[in-house]
Amino acid sequence: MQKDHPNLPTVPNVTGLIHHPYTPPAEFDAPQPGVFKASTVYFPTVADMRQREWKDKSAYTYGLHGTPTTYLLEERLCSLEGGLQCMLVPSGLAALALVALAVLKTGDEVLIPDNAYGPNKALADGELRHFGITHRFYDPMDPQDLSRQIKDRTRLVWLEAPGSVSMEFPDLPEMVRRCRERGVLCALDNTWGSGLAFKPFDLLADGADGAGSLAVDISAHALTKYPSGGGDVLMGSVITRDAALHLQIKLCHMRLGLGVAANDAETVLRSLPSIALRYAAHDQTARALAAWWQTQPQCAQLMHPAFEGAPGHAHWQALCDRVPGTGLAAGLFSVMIDARYSQDQVDAFCDGLKLFKIGYSWGGPVSLVVPYNIASMRQTWPGHLKPGTLVRFSTGLESAQDLVLDLHQAVQAHLPIA
Ligand SMILES: *Cc1c(COP(=O)(O)O)cnc(C)c1O
User: Is the distance from the beta carbon of residue 195 to the nearest atom of ligand 1 less than 6 Å?
Assistant: First the structure.
């Protein structure tokens, strides 16, 4: 070699390292999935390369088109939510964007609930608008308003149950029926329900395997929250039960070059087996804290769908609490701090919390708090909300008693009773 090509550098053993005769362990029949990483996937022959089909996941062709690790995660997420097909994307927001870009084109309109996750509104206003795609907001608590707003060019309706921050729980089955009547696609941001509080493809609980007579078309999920559970992964999924719709989403996904990292997929796979236990624990703690807030004079209004009097409580009961007392809710709730307290006082209360950290997102082990300015987030102040300053809490996995003590000390210090 050296003699025939004297100008080529020789690096001892490097070829031997790359062409190491590696064979995966035989009969290593452990339940924990491997982490498979690749851009290139080899084809034994050109003929094989031309034959292999990635669109139906019957083969592997390129890392971006899926690996054993991502296919497995997609399949498990389908079981969780009752779907048949799934695409993974690098964040929850990317899942919302993928849905929009896959199904909307110039001249179309998308309807968004007025209490939607804020960045979904920003996506419509800041990006879709430039493609000639218009958007309007509907009142999530008024199915008639949704029907009124559906026009000939309405192509997609977003649903969220409950709405981000103000936590109103809509009549989800009725909203889906209204979309069906008009032949408009409906996509649910299912991050709150997480596949556990209700089944997005079986809203009347009359089906098997999560699929019933009334279903959303698309379920988008920020896996960043409960499926990850660690506050350490950003990922999203888009789940469907219609092969043609899935293919449309999948082709858009491929053209955009979206993919997720194998280690992140593995982290979510690692967390999924405990999701139901964690969800129930977050739920229990959130209800304990919400119940405590109800006894506090500083609390003008409690927004937690499982509580009597909260906006949309009856809809939560109908969808999530079919056997009364067994219904689940995420570990999220908001409190309207009475209007007699200034924004500064409420900010000082949040700053004064020790266990609750100030930060976005939820679903991890640490409890979080964020004060929100509702007036800046809505077209109009929602009639069902009392005046005041809204604070949203997401419960982590700390002891509920420690969290109540933390709330108590910060309330005492910063929100005095006159
Ligand atoms: C967090 C969240 C998202 C976005 O998820 P990211 O992974 O943070 O982009 C979307 N919808 C809802 C309801 C969320 O709470």
Answer: no
* Contact 117 CB / ligand 1 (< 6 Å): yes
Strands 218-222 and 185-189, by their bridges, are parallel
Place of tokens 């979309």: 179
With a 6 Å cutoff on the Cβ, whether 231 touches ligand 1 is no
> pLDDT per residue over 191-238, tens digit each?
999 999 999 999 999 998 788 999 999 999 999 999 999 999 999 999
Structure tokens at 384: 């069902």
Residues 66, 70, 75: CA angle, nearest 5 degrees: 110
Contact by Cβ (8 Å): 140, 160: yes
Q: Among residues 223, 265, 254, which one has the least CA distance to residue 73?
A: 265
pLDDT per position as a tens digit, 275-286:
999 999 999 999
Domains of the chain (ranges; CATH) run 66-272 (3.40.640.10), 274-414 (3.90.1150.10)
pLDDT above 80 (res 329):
yes
**Is residue 361 packed enough to be buried (19+ CB in 10 Å), middle (13-18) or exposed (0-12)?**
middle
Smallest CA-to-CA distance from 366 within 282, 296, 266 is with 282
Residues 338-395 have pLDDT tens digits of: 999 999 999 999 999 999 999 999 999 999 999 998 888 887 788 899 999 999 999 9
Residues written for the chain: 418
- Residue 394's pLDDT is 98
Separation of CA 360 and ligand 1 centre (Å): 10
CA of 359 to the centre of ligand 1 (A): 13
Ligand 1 atom index nearest CA of 361: 1
Query: Can you tell me whether residue 238 is helix, strand or coil?
Result: strand
Best substitution site from 112, 189, 362 to test ligand 1's pocket, by max atoms within 8 Å of Cβ? 189
